[in-house]
Amino acid sequence: MCNYCGCREFPLIGQLTTEHEAIVNAAGRLRAAITSGTGDPVARLDDLLALLMPHTDTEERGLFVELRAEGSLTEAVDRLCDEHDDIHGVLGTLDRTAPDWPEVLAALDRLRRHIDNEEHGLFPAAVIALPIPAWDRLTSPQPTA
């Protein structure tokens, strides 16, 4: 994870980075369960999904909305959303009676690259691109319906 640009000082980026670390660790446990039999891979997949799904929702309903509104990083956000769909499509719809573990391992590789792109590309760029009012909206408590 990135430690050099200071973007983690922005509360939402700090939260998303902490979540990325937990997701990477959960993905590592899933990989180990698949490749070396250390644990139940389906249970490890469930652990990963329990972290990944709310994390992605936070990105797509928060940071990505503000970045699209700002406009300069729209293509990057669209690509990252497509990657979310791809990775979720593999991990979230796995046939648990006959799992395609090689496909899951490939998705885990894509997940790692995806996180790296967010950490070293999008997050630092977001800090520069978004005005302070956008960050205020991202860190203010949202009204509940």
TrEMBL record:
<dbReference type="InterPro" id="IPR012312">
    <property type="entry name" value="Hemerythrin-like"/>
</dbReference>
<feature type="domain" description="Hemerythrin-like">
    <location>
        <begin position="14"/>
        <end position="126"/>
    </location>
</feature>
<protein>
    <recommendedName>
        <fullName>Hemerythrin-like domain-containing protein</fullName>
    </recommendedName>
</protein>
<dbReference type="Pfam" id="PF01814">
    <property type="entry name" value="Hemerythrin"/>
</dbReference>
